[in-house]
Fold:
Amino acid sequence: MNPHLVQKLGFGLLALISLVVVIPILLVIGAILAQGAPAISAEFLTAMPRDGMKAGGILPAIVGTLLLTAGTGLVAIPMGVGAAIYLSEYARDTGLTRAVRLAIVNLASVPSVVYGLFGVGIFVLLLQFGTSILAGSLTLAIMTLPVIISTSEEALRAVPMEFRTVSASLGGTPWQGIRRVVLPQALPGIITGVILGLLRSAGETAPILFTVAAFYLPALPQSVMDQTMALPYHLYVISTQVPGMPLSIQFGTALTLLIYVLSMNVIATLIRGYFRRRREW
Structure:
């Protein structure tokens, strides 16, 4: 068969597969935009819910989602990047380190409900944090760690060894080479892993259902030991547990969560692009 014909058939098949994947996503996004946009207003985004969440706004859910994402990042990013640096730059290639890497990969595929049950047992009951923002953030951080560790380690390993060699030849310590040379070059990949992990935590319902989320709480949290509403759980509640809930509020909440996730993606892309332009290889 003509190689050029085979190539055209391959490109055509790839284009068809791409359309099959992309078109349903665009249809879902279009439906959310069409039915959710009329509900978006200043009151909807800044007011407290009332009348059993059938009126008012979703401010507590928005604030709760922001707090949980921030808490997850504060815990997961230093621990995840630190573990990746150790595994990539310091740990020897032994059976133990290979087992740790295998465990990290396996933990990334564990269902989120398992992490929720783990959070209940450890943070809510054993450490007696109760159902609180602290317990929810720690649970989400543990769920996010495998993604951050694995992607950050790959980004660090992708930096050419010559960077480390030159740093050492100039008298730099291993840590100086990592901090001043390797980390800046690996930042685009690390940021990608961080955002992937945080986006997963921002859209999860099961872990926060057990550890932090409140069914109806028309007030903002005052401390990390308080419960809070969150957009994923709020969307689940108004879609399945509240009879007579206006459809516009359901789609408006879904659109708000979608905008939040897409905004995080856009910001991460801009930051990643900035550091990628500064990369020297």
Observations:
- The longest strand covers residues 49-50.
- The chain has eleven helices and two strands.
- Residues 3-36 form the longest helix (34 residues).
